[in-house]
Amino acid sequence: MAGxxxxxxxxxxxxxxxxxEVFWKQGYEATSMMDLTSAMGIASPSLYAAFxxxxxxxxxxxxxxxxxxxxxxxxxxxxLPSAKDAVESVLRHNARxxxxxxxxxxxxIVLAATNCSTANAPVRDHLATRRRAGTEMMARRLERAVRxxxxxxxTDTEAMAVxxxxxxxxxxxxxxxxxxxxxxxxxxxRAMAAWDAVAGASTA
Amino acid sequence: MAGxxxxxxxxxxxxxxxxxEVFWKQGYEATSMMDLTSAMGIASPSLYAAFxxxxxxxxxxxxxxxxxxxxxxxxxxxxLPSAKDAVESVLRHNARxxxxxxxxxxxxIVLAATNCSTANAPVRDHLATRRRAGTEMMARRLERAVRxxxxxxxTDTEAMAVxxxxxxxxxxxxxxxxxxxxxxxxxxxRAMAAWDAVAGASTA
DNA sequence: GAGTTTCTGTGTCGATCAGCACAGAAATCG
DNA sequence: CGATTTCTGTGCTGATCGACACAGAAACTC
Lengths: 204, 204
Known about the structure:
- Two copies of one chain form a homodimer.
- Chain A is mostly helical.
- Chain A has helices spanning 12-26, 33-40, 44-51, 54-68, 71-79, 83-98, 108-111, 121-147, 157-176, 181-193, 195-200.
- The first copy, chain A, is elongated, with a radius of gyration of 19 Å.
């Protein structure tokens, strides 16, 4: 691993983490190169040499976000024996993470590129794909719950996953508007109290 | 009303409506002056003379949005005799409006300035205030339902209003991601099936 | 008609955007 | 040691941002 030329003077992982925090707080388009370089402690050519472009840096930041902030959710959905406990765990984690002190408010995947210019449509679509992947993961967990008898046969697992995803995404908007963790938890209380009704709901 | 000087060559209301549609579709920051002038059919000095600035134009566009798109929701909350019917009407209206063909997807108040640079913080705060106003209106309607006996005494009307607001805001994100009106309606089905559980939920 | 007022269209302002050219600096290899 | 390779920092690029100066055009009042 001994590089041939002059070694990099900054830690790539640390710089990427700083970039992620800025993108998380300000979103993709509202973050300028100067915001990034000053937060990462490097000059712009170093950024381009190490990450390629602003867009490539953002996608790496999203991956890092998924690997760190998203890990507890993935673990809950795959490891907890009860689907209801798993979904509640995901919601509780979001309520805590979305409003945590010192950090940006709300989920980066939801908020970082909801509205952006057509020139940056690839960035928006990239996050939209990530959001759909989250819904898919929850839907598969609910299907398993049906197979295991935790949820009644015939449950519309797809609609149920969309419902809880909708609540999660709404919570990010609430957090960005200043809602406290306690306030988000009250919403989680209600979303979970509705579990049986949500599972048993028909398409009207 | 006879103006003294040269009369305006464009219809102010029509131009404002066009501006609203652009802001609705692209958000505040992603919309450039050129987007606005070409959509409104006027040159930039005419825009500044008639509306003051990009920010002032946006705020007028938000008022127009409230007066048109938001009117059915306000009417439902004030006129329908049942709070449950009123909230369901609001949700159904959102499901239809958020995913209507030919128009922008999702609610403008929710999506037009979720993430923007610090320079445009006033715009973001303006929309956040509007969002809180919507929650407040629903909370007052639920309080009335408690007074009238439709909801049990001791119902946490504030938390209940926040819950349904969260669902509405999440639906806008879903619509922006391409969810159909039918898909949003399935979420409404579940949110309304949960009515009694949501009303009776405690703070865990 | 002349004078006044207001709007329109062209052209451009300084600031800022993402991105890169270039040369000097710091490491390894022979 | 010299040669090579890679990174760093300064400073710039064309493009675009929101906003406006200016002069001509079109209505009014007298």
